[in-house]
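Schema walk-through. Below, the input block comes first and the output block second. Nothing else is stored per chain. Lengths vary across the set, and this one has 225 residues.
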Amino acid sequence: MTRFSTEARTATGRDLFKDRKKKKASERSSDKPAAVQLGEYGRYQIKSGRLSGEFVARAFPKPPTNARGMIAEATGATEEAAIAALHDAIDARETRRTDDRRADPATGLAVPSTEEFVEAVAQVALSRPQRAMLLALALADDAGLSEVRVASAAGYKSNASANRALASAGLLIASYLSLEATPDAATSDNDGTMFLGYRGRQRNDENPGNWILHAELREAVRSAA
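--- output ---
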């Protein structure tokens, strides 16, 4: 009798232990975060999934980039709804930014805010010489710099090479921020530099005037330095 009772308890103990292991495994499985889905919308990378019981979608700078930080976030009843809400939030953000741009009297262009320039400078693939020129111009404030000094800041031996590099930087930033030259914009420097700033007063035929960055871009470059 004792033998049979002992076997019964042993069998029962095994079953309970087995059930407990299954339960713990199930709990561990339910605690695991849902897989994060990756997507893109415009110039942003979208990450979505379930977090703390709700569906969340977030926008981040699109790789490859050194920029960090979340751009926008939205939640929804489903993952698809969260992503759709995030798209709407991004669109609203872009509309607000565009509407808030000031018209520059020197070029006729709509100048992005410092916030926009900060994002663009962090995102676009500017070369070291291009960043050196932008920093030198940012530190020069309203006075700007002559072509010779801009070229020297980046180690260029010719003004023409420096001007081309500066124009290329302007086009990269303009492309990222979806900037376009307006019909009323000055066309003498529409090679890309017009998106960065403008020329100062021309003193003579041999001096085309200093390069001067937009105040918003100056602040953005200094904050990133």
